[in-house]
Design a protein that fits this description.
By secondary structure, the protein is mostly beta strands. Helix content is 10%, strand content 68%.
């Protein structure tokens, strides 16, 4: 896992050296599978007028009684502008899910346990950017993620900054 993140960071770092078409974004969104909200940070490199490569990291926590569900997600997507600032996207995803149960009474009755599961999947979706000022845009994005055994929707809204 650490090797993959290191290689991704090196590749994105190499792209940022040229600073041609480089951007970053922050957003908040809803994940349907855990019925919770998460925060996301993106790095985007525009290859040309139509194509971009985006990598994003999402962290989400949802509590349900004595159970806490934490998700850490890393996406790598290709984006293609279809019209104006509307785009479609597709790519891969790494998902790390941690489920922690404290038992009844925060562990005083019953046993406490924690389990982690890692999945790889694919996603497809669409988004739109609306330019507010020269280098700042507001954007929205919706995607469906195909992971085993079932998938989920991830909808988000955020700010995109061009450098």
């Amino acid at each position: 896992m650490k090797k993959y993140l290191f290689v991704l960071a090196v590749l994105l770092g190499g792209y940022s050296v040229s600073a041609q078409g480089f951007g970053a974004a922050i957003s908040g969104g809803y994940l349907s599978e855990i019925d919770g909200f998460g925060g996301t940070a993106d790095l985007i490199y525009s290859i040309d007028e139509k194509w971009s490569v985006a990598s994003d990291v999402t962290y989400s926590v949802a509590d349900s009684g004595p159970t806490r569900n934490k998700w850490f997600i890393v996406d790598l997507n290709a984006q293609y502008k279809v019209y104006d600032e509307a785009y479609v996207l597709g790519g891969g995803e790494y998902l790390s899910m941690t489920l922690k149960s404290g038992g009844l009474g925060a562990g005083s009755i019953g046993t406490e346990f924690e389990t982690t599961n890692n999945e790889f999947g694919f996603n497809a979706g669409a988004g739109y950017r609306y330019k507010i000022i020269d280098n700042v845009s507001v954007f929205t994005e919706v995607k469906y993620v195909f992971v085993d055994p079932s998938g989920y929707f991830h909808a988000r809204l955020g700010l995109h900054f061009d450098f």
